[in-house]
Amino acid sequence: MSETPDIVSPLSSGQNAADNRISLSEEGELAALRKTNVALESRNYELREQVRQLRLQNAAAESQRDQHKREIKKLRDELDSYRSPPLVLGTIESVLDENHAVVRSTTGPQFLSRISEHLTSTKGLVPGAQCAMHLQSFTVVDILPPRYDMQVEAMEILDAPLVTYDDIGGLDEQKQLLRESIELPLKSPRLFEAVGIEPPKGVLMFGPPGTGKTLLAKAVAHHTKATFIHVVGSELVQKYIGEGARLVRELFQMARERAPAIVFIDEIDAIGASRTHDAYSAGDHEVNRTLMQLLAELDGFDNRGDVKIIGATNRHDILDKALLRPGRFDRIIEFPLPDAKGRKVILEIHTKKMNLRKTVSLEEIAGQTEGMNGSELMAVCVEAGMNAIRKRRTMINQEDFAKALASVKSGRTGIVMQQPDAMYS
Ligand SMILES: Nc1ncnc2c1ncn2[C@@H]1O[C@H](COP(=O)(O)OP(=O)(O)OP(=O)(O)O)[C@@H](O)[C@H]1O
Ligand SMILES: [Mg+2]
Fold it and tell me: Is the bond preceding residue 260 a cis peptide, omega within 30 degrees?
């Protein structure tokens, strides 16, 4: 207030110096000015007061802002900690409203979960989507991009195996049947249309162990340009309810998307064994469910669709009847133990790179290996090579083969357990 210039003083001094010549009207003017002055001063005071108040308010707001900033940082940190692993994976079953969803955790139970407000995008928030949930609160904190389970993704064979049809001894008929049923429909579907028959959808290979079933499937994978998906039946047996069926569904979905495709299910008896009506364990139920999904998938795809299926088993007798009916596996191919001719070819294949003496007669060995399967014949060849190495020789002779034969044969019978004599006496 004190620094306000006194606008009255010069006027008043001028007033004092002059005499009574000042007219009444001037005096009135003076009074009005004084009044204005007072008003202005009080206005000035008011404004200053306002400025002070605003400054105070500003300081308060600034301190509040800082406080909020700190709070935001704290919340962000907390949010990050929610997002940081380990998170529980689950599947959205239904979305109730903006903030709530029913989620089935992969560990089994269902939850009514809160949906985090900080989801980067709610686009994928649909039933069936995979989501990540906080470990304790089970709040949905993230939606996983729609892709197949890593396990399914890994089943696709990207590097073709090195096995070719020429590496398989004998089995000419089997090779022919498989190529006709799998390769031909993929390569020339028109042929089947012209003839007016539905191309086979799949084949089932069965036979004793070591007779070349997996080997032939590898050769198909080597020769085909189609996507080759390899799965072992036991991989589809899962711990949690519905997981096996989901894998089967995703497997075929992936095959359809990447068609032309061949799905090879090795050791299919792991899930394809006859369903038991008295399945009393949860595990049996789960395997049954997985099989049902497989049956549905086999029916599901369009006949001329480009997805073919190859199954392999050595227990075709225990497979479920539904799996064996025509229309699921159209052709059932038996892989018998090789005959003498077949055994000779298999021996030739496995000794192709070996340094054999001229005197070695593979025909003779083939004659002596009655009842042996392909893998045992391979073992005989490897063992013969080892016998030569033991003698520090690089050439393999007939005697090496004779010894190898004896040891492989004894190996087959040698696994019979010795009966303990004195255990119960
Ligand atoms: N016809 C064959 N020609 C050449 N090698 C063979 C033949 N059959 C089997 N073998 C040899 O035996 C090995 C095992 O064969 P493969 O894995 O195909 O048996 P499998 O029929 O699938 O047996 P399993 O039913 O036990 O799975 C092959 O890696 C191969 O070295
Ligand atoms: Mg096999």
Answer: yes
